[in-house]
Structure formats: C-alpha cells, structure tokens
Amino acid sequence: MNSKFISIEGIEGAGKSTQLAFIQQYLQQQGINVVVTREPGGTELGEQIRTLLLTPREEGMSDNAELLLMFAARAEHVNQVIRPALERGDWVLCDRFVDATFAYQGGGRGIDSSRIEQIANWTLNGLQTDLTFLFDLPVEVGQQRVNARQGDNDRFEQEKTAFFQRIRECYLQRAQSEPNRLKVIDSNQSIEQIQLQLKSILATMLA
Ligand code: Z5A
Questions:
Q1: Can you give the pTM of this predicted structure?
Q2: What Rg, from alpha-carbon coordinates, does the chain have?
Q3: Residue 95 CB partners (closer than 8 Å, separation 6+)
Q4: Which of 145, 148, 149, 183 is the most buried (most CB within 10 A)?
Q5: Atom of ligand 1 nearest to the CA of 188
Q6: CATH 3.40.50.300 fits 5-206, yes or no
C-alpha cells in the first residue's frame, strides 16, 4: 500500500485530539505503520516555535510574524519528519497542516490567501495531504467544550468568537472547493457516531 498523508483540522474543541487516537488505532489494526505528529511542532525546533506561538504575550505578535513562524516550523517538520516517513512508505497522521494556516492566518487574521499560497508553494514544494478530516461544529459548542477543560487559555484560545467564526467559514469554503481531499465531519454528534463515519471514509481509502 502506498504511503498516505492524512491531517485533521477544525476549530478549537472540535474533537481532533479525541479522534486522532482512534484513527491511529484503526490504521494500525489494518497493518499500517503510522507516524503521528502535529503542527505547529513535530520537531525539536518546531516544538520551540509552538511555545513561542501559543504563549500569550503582553506586546502581542504581528500577523506576519505569526504566519512566518507557522511556516518556519512546518518547513522543518516537512524536511525532518513528513517527507522521510512518506518516502519510507509509512503513513503520516498529522494534527493540523497547511489548511490551518489558510483558516487561522487567512480567514482569522485576514492575511491574503494568495500570499499564504506563495509561501506554501515555496516551502512545501507541492506537498499536500491525501485526505483531511475537517471536524466541524458551531463555535459556541467548541468554546463550551474548551472552557469545561482545566488549564489556562493559550494565545489563540483567548481570541473572540468572531475570530473562530471566520476560521470555521474559511475551513468550510476550502472543503467545498476540494471535496475529495477535505471531508467534513459533523462533530456535534457523539464520539461513537463520529468514529463510524471516520471508519467508513478510511475503509474506502484502503479499498
Ligand atoms: N494554528 C494556526 O493558527 N495556524 C496553523 O497553521 C496551525 C495551527 C498548524 C494549536 O493547535 C493552535 O495553533 C490552534 C490553531 C493554531 N489554536 N487554536 N484554537 P492545536 O490543534 O494544538 O490546539 P487546539 O485546536 O486548541 O486543540 P484542542 O482545543 O485540544 O481541540 P481538539 O483537539 O479539537 O479537541 P479535543 O481536546 O479532542 O476535545 C475538546 C473537549 O471536548 C475534550 O474535553 C473532549 O473530551 C470533548 N469532546 C471531544 N469530542 C466530543 C464529542 N463528540 N462530544 C462531546 N464532547 C467531546
């Protein structure tokens, strides 16, 4: 079986982390070697950049600095982890990839998507996911789930509802324009119902 690159996306609280373990386990049961990783992060440098990006800072961070840090972490991640794994024939399961940048820095922050596209072309050299699960749910539901968790909010979680609305819309638009790659999962269902849907999409991919 040829290697495949799968990512999972969604607004905060959409249930990505919850379903990541399920997808990993399902693929492993099919005899597939899966490399599980995340963005921003996935390498030593990338994890340091993640801390810079997520830690709230009094002086703030410019939108361009945020965008370029996302791609700096991603360039390292692609070179050190994702491409080598795909070349070995492993599958890669990544918690967020470039769709997140279009949604958060594009939709959320308002950076022109053509600028993001330029940097993506330059740093990724054509790499794109084979399949992306978009966990979709109303922003208020995601926020309630996140608020019910313990711990401080990170720099993104401190943003207002309108920011996440724009992100959700941008994700859904991308899914509409690339329906074969981006599969929308209604995440306002039970964990078990979602898993049935995931299983059916993965089984089709494996067939
Ligand atoms: N970011 C960016 O701006 N640009 C980029 O290019 C990239 C990232 C790559 C970190 O991402 C931040 O980086 C992110 C976007 C930005 N900021 N935000 N927001 P992250 O993925 O590490 O962080 P996150 O989105 O904040 O993850 P999260 O809050 O952990 O969400 P989640 O993984 O989707 O949710 P979860 O932990 O699986 O579930 C949340 C809670 O809901 C939990 O208590 C679950 O038990 C519960 N849950 C899950 N599913 C259900 C269902 N079906 N019903 C009821 N309850 C559920």
A1: 0.97
A2: 16
A3: 7, 8, 16, 17, 20, 36, 37, 38, 39
A4: 183
A5: 53
A6: yes
Residue at 165: amino acid letter? Q
What is the per-residue pLDDT across 30-81, written as a single tens digit (0 to 9) for each?
999 999 999 999 999 999 999 999 999 999 999 999 999 999 999 999 999 9
Give distance in angstroms: CA of 179 to centre of ligand 1: 22
> With 0-12 CB in 10 A as exposed, 13-18 as middle and 19+ as buried, what is 158?
exposed
Tokens of residue 118, six digits:
């330029």
Q: How far is CA 13 from CA 137, 153, 187, 204, in A?
A: 9, 12, 10, 27
Q: Which residues line ligand 1 (CB under 6 A)?
A: 10, 12-18, 39-40, 70, 95-96, 100-101, 104-105, 145-146, 149, 156-157, 187, 190-191, 194
> What are the pLDDT digits (tens) for 136-162?
999 999 999 988 887 888 999 889 899
Burial of 200 (0-12, 13-18, 19+ CB in 10 A): exposed
Tokens of 188: 């306002």
Buried b (16+ CB within 10 A) or exposed e, 108-130: bbebebeebeebbeebbeeeebb
